[in-house]
Amino acid sequence: MFAAYKFVIRVFVTCLVGIALLTPATSFASSPDQGRDVSSQDSPPDYSEKPVAGTAKEVFPPDRQYRIGVEDVLLVSVWRDADLTREVPVRPDGKISLPLIQDITAAGKTPAELGQEIQVRLKEYMSNPSVTVIVREINSIKIYLLGEVARPGPVAPKAQVRLLQAIAMAGGITPFGGKKKIAIFRKTPSGEKVIEVSYESIVSGKKPSDNLILEPGDTVVVR
Fold first, then answer.
1. How far is Cα 106 from Cα 90, in angstroms, rounded to an integer?
2. Distance from CA of residue 193 to its chain's centroid?
3. Class of domain 61-137
4. Where are the domains of the chain?
5. Does domain 143-222 have CATH number 3.40.50.300?
6. Per the confidence metrics, is the pTM higher than 0.85?
7. Which of 128, 113, 25 is nearest to 79 (CA)?
8. Of 44, 91, 98, 198, which residue is most buried, by most CB within 10 angstroms?
9. d(CA 190, CA 82)
């Protein structure tokens, strides 16, 4: 009888262990996530309509790109063709001369635009040309200073300059200069514009904003 009692206890314990082992599986099967559509969670986010930061358009706006001018010196590089690669000046008529394609207008174009046009023209003579145009010397930006400056005439800055810098490039104001009125003549799409500023107001610090950034073609008259 005692043996039968032990057998019943063993069967009972075995049943309890089996129930314990089956319980997690049952809970998992009845999880609230079962049957739910989670495909949207697995799909990558859609960035097709979002702007991409750091594009060339943002870094180099079209209206700020340098445009080639008369007397600039250009390096026209044709990949893997040393005979066609050369340094050329922009002539007074705004054109440059290159082998095979002869004359081509450079003035008024960006280096990238000119390189693309040369590349198209060269396709008549070679397959898949690759052309790069680099501005070696900027000589087309001229500002004219007249009146009471030591060296009246044009100055050719290599970069953006302000009024006082341009006056310094012309040797400074003479002892006869009144240092009160400076007139800047500037061509605009609507006609010529005259801007009057005071030299004394700039150097004294009363109106430093009058030390304007000059534009190519400006004429500065110091009275």
1. 7
2. 30
3. alpha beta
4. 61-137, 143-222
5. no
6. no
7. 128
8. 98
9. 46
